[in-house]
């Protein structure tokens, strides 16, 4: 440990300044969080105690995330009821369980993938009209669905 500290202290002042500037402006864990409604609140509420790496790569049902949020509240996480509701929604949408777009109903599509009811209906109608989706590109072509929304949850979509 002392050896590492000595090497660190031997860096030039310019190198030290650059290292600290980068560390402050580009938090490594925040880089991998999906952009979406609730991200900033998640970072403010949950980031006060831990990095985003605790959820990145995780998945769970809405009930599982609700239990996690409740546990964090009980451990002293600070936020309003609306903050915790936003965190729960963010976790359920972006770190939820996989959704098979060929088998679930419109309501499940809407709730699970943060789509409108009309978008969920459009996916089910396209599936009924043309058969099951084979790849993401097929799903992305569905008229009446905001592809940007699908892109944000792409990793959760199964066929």
Overview of the molecule:
The protein has 159 residues and is mainly alpha-helical. Helix content is 55%, strand content 3%. The chain is built from nine helices and two strands, in the order αααααβααααβ. A two-stranded parallel sheet has the order 1-2. The longest helix has 14 residues, at 81-94. It is elongated and about 50 Å long. The chain starts with a helix and ends with a strand. Mean pLDDT is 84; it is low at 1-30.
What's the helix and strand layout?
Blueprint: H1 2-9, H2 13-25, H3 39-45, H4 62-74, H5 81-94, E1 99-100, H6 106-113, H7 117-130, H8 136-140, H9 147-152, E2 157-158
Parallel strand pairs: 1-2
Strand content: under 5%
Within the largest sheet, what's the order of strands? Answer: 1-2
Largest β sheet strand count, sense and barrel closure? 2 strands, parallel
Given the helix and strand composition, which structural class is it? mainly alpha
Measured distance between first and last alpha carbons: 50 Å
Using the alpha-carbon principal axes, give the shape.
elongated
Q: Count the DSSP helices.
A: 9
| Average pLDDT taken over every residue | 84
The radius of gyration is: 20 Å
């Amino acid at each position: 440990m002392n050896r590492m500290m000595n090497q660190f202290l031997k860096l030039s002042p310019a190198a030290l300044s650059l290292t600290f500037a980068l560390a402050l402006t580009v938090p490594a864990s925040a880089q991998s969080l999906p952009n979406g409604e609730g991200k900033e609140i998640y970072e403010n509420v949950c980031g006060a105690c831990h990095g985003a790496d605790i959820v990145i790569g995780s998945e769970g049902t809405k009930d599982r995330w609700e239990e996690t949020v409740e546990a964090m509240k009980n451990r002293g996480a600070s936020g309003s009821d609306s903050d915790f509701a936003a965190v729960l929604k963010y976790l359920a949408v972006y770190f939820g369980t996989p959704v098979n777009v060929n088998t679930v109903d419109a309501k499940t599509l809407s709730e699970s993938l943060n789509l409108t009811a009309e978008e969920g209906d459009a996916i089910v109608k396209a599936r009924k009209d043309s058969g099951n989706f084979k790849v993401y590109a097929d799903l992305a072509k569905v008229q009446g669905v905001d592809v940007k929304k699908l892109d944000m949850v792409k990793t959760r979509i199964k066929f």
